[in-house]
Structures are given as C-alpha cells and as structure tokens.
Amino acid sequence: MTNSIQKTVSPVDGSIYVERELASSKQIEDTLAKATEAQAAWRRVSVAERAAICRRMSGQLLEEANEIGEELSWQIGRPIAYSPFEIRRGFNERVRYMSDIADRELADVALEPKEHFQRFIRREPLGVVLVLAPWNYPYLASVNAVVPAILAGNSVILKVSAQTPLSIEMSAISGT
Q1: Which has the closest alpha carbon to 132: 116, 118, 117, 149?
Q2: Claim: this prediction has a pTM higher than 0.85
C-alpha cells in the first residue's frame, strides 16, 4: 500500500514547494520504538553533557541561520529579512538559557529532615515526549518543549507542520 503525499504550497508564489510521503503506521510505530530504546540510554547521560549537546546543536543552527531562514520564508511567506532571526535571537537565546540553568533546575531538592529518613525530590525523565511544532514559528515555539525534554533526559519525537516540513529536514541533514 502506498502512502499519501503531502504537498506544501508556498504562499510566496503559490507553487508546490515540496512534496513528502507521509509516514505509514509501521514507520510511526518503528519511530516510537527507536525513541523508547534511545531514551533508556539517554537518561544515563549527565545533565552537563546533555546541555553541552544542546549548545552545540544551537551553534550549528546559528551557522546555518541564513539557509534555514530562506527555507522558512518560502514555506510560510515570512519576509526573508526576518526569518534568520527566529534562529539567531529567540531560539538561540532560549537554548543557551535553558542549558545554563539545567544543572540547578534538575538537581535534587532537599526536604525538611525527618528522623531516620533522608527526604528529597528527584526529577526523573518521563520517557518519550511528542512535540507538535506550529507552522508560523517552528523553531522558536518548539524549542520551549524540545530542549527542556532533552535536558531532562527524555527522548523527543518532533512532528512539524505540513506547511514547514523542511524545518526539521535541514536540522536532521546537518546532524543536529
């Protein structure tokens, strides 16, 4: 059985900008299984190393901000002069901030002592987190869910809008 084809129409000129085959049920199940397996190992990576990886990802996207901006402009119709700033400003600032506070915010919280008990709150990863990215700010909006989930030791499945399928493809190709 063949999958359906998603066609993304550019608001810039009304042309079909990109066509992609939609994932089959099996591909979706396989992705979930891989994310579950990856999370078992990822949760054992230190918060400091997770933060370093997030910073490297942001740095890579900063280097590609012009190319990403051009792709976004064609997909959503935003003026090209503004699109790279989604990465350069808000996205990068949020990744850096969340990475900087991750150790402190994810550390155990000591509670009032109780005889014969050491009491504390420990934040544990949830597992696999699904994030749905909007079409109008796919990077800026999704960073608020993706990066905290990654920093906390979860794996993430990111579903982008049908209007901006290339937003995740460019990141995946570049290795981020």
Answers
A1: 149
A2: yes
